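Folding Task

Wanted — backbone structure
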Amino acid sequence: MKQPEQSYTAIETAHGFVFFTDTTEGQKNRQDFLQFMADHYFDPHFNLGPVNVYRAEGVLKDGSYVNPGEGLYPEYAYLQMDKTPEMELVYRNEMKPTWEDFGSFCHNMHCTSSHRNRNIADILEEIESKDRKLLELSKQGTASDIRQQIEETGQDKALLDKLLKQYYDVRGHRTVGNILRDPMECVTVDGVRLFTPHRQVLAAGHGLFLPGEAKSNPSHAYAWINGDFTRIVFSKDPPANKQVFKVKTVIEKALNKKQDVKKKRNTHPKL
């Protein structure tokens, strides 16, 4: 019979792998790690997904990535490695900011849900329900009663969205104000890195030209805040009636390099 230290759980995140043996210590630290992820699931800077959970057998070499139990999850010494054939995938979650992914993670990883996260998940579920109803109504013609139902459902959805953004700061559902005031040096919006200088340009009411995006993702070459200050708009064309600025290339390169170094800081040789 396999001893506890000869079987383990490997958890792969966007940062790399951590390992937890089936010992008492390993099981406790594993559950603490998973619960910490559940508690911070909707945080604006939660960036561990997608998450893969594997079961495997074998004796692990000692390392800071085995049974980690101190510090916050971004500070763990994640190991960069290729998956091995001995690893059996038992669970996968994209960890998107949706009520489905959150509920699946908590259920399958045996985590509890905080009161705050339950409220967020309930609101997200209701917003999705309104979206489905709007889609169904749009297929039923243009009769006056259908138009009225569409208007009322749209108003309900808007109220739910306002409630979510007024009381919570949820990744994927953030207000423009929260994005602009974010103390983090880099905030990612719709896949685009917006550093502090970028957000200063937007906050001043100007348009922003992103040369890096113009080359790799032309549909996001320009950015600006829409008229009612509800979202950041990206487009391949410059905004009308706005002065367009570009952060100096040398500054932008330095900021991107600094961000990439942060991502690579906790890398280790492959096993």
Notes: The chain has three domains: 4-108, 115-167, 176-264. The chain has eight helices and ten strands.
